[in-house]
Specification:
alpha/beta; Alpha/beta knot; 5 helices; 5 strands; 44% helix; Ribosomal RNA large subunit methyltransferase H
Length: 159
């Protein structure tokens, strides 16, 4: 299985990079992982709704330029479906069984995802109703993918 994480924004914090590296190494046993970092657009303080929409659309176009036709696209979206870790594991496994061996998880910037990205998504997933920094969320997503594979394989990790 090929897992691609397309994310807006570059990681600057060393501790987050170390966590990403650790989960990337762990996941290499189960899948081919690619992380694509895209430049985020600077949002001015007191940006108007129109300015924010333009920023989301520009970031959205950058995202869509990285999405391949054969990818099953999962948008990380607050309006998406919430799954337990077991359900998420089943979700990943079912995609492989259904022939979707290229899954792309999309993490938007601080303003979220454009409507074009949401429209392209095959599935919308929400981890929580809470808001998380998108840099930290990348670590959380990789941890859950790793946990999902461990559950799938019946390996000790999930409690």
């Amino acid at each position: 299985m090929n897992i691609t994480v397309i994310t807006v924004g570059k990681l600057k914090e060393k501790y987050l990079k170390q966590a990403i590296d650790e989960y990337s190494k762990r996941l290499s046993r189960y899948c081919k992982l690619e992380i694509i970092e895209l430049q985020d657009e600077k949002t001015p303080d007191n940006a108007s709704e129109k300015e924010e929409l333009a920023i989301k659309e520009k970031e959205g176009q950058l995202i869509l330029n990285k999405v391949k036709d054969n990818m099953f696209v999962v948008a990380m979206d607050l309006k998406g479906k919430q799954l337990s870790s077991e359900e998420f594991s089943d979700f990943i496994e079912k995609q492989g069984v259904m022939g979707n061996s290229n899954i792309a998880f999309i993490i938007g910037g601080s303003l979220g995802l454009s409507q074009a990205v949401i429209k392209r998504a095959d599935y919308k997933l929400c981890f929580s109703n809470m808001t998380f920094p998108h840099q930290l969320f990348r670590v959380m997503l990789l941890e859950q993918i790793y946990r999902g594979y461990r559950i799938m394989k019946g390996e000790p990790y999930h409690k």
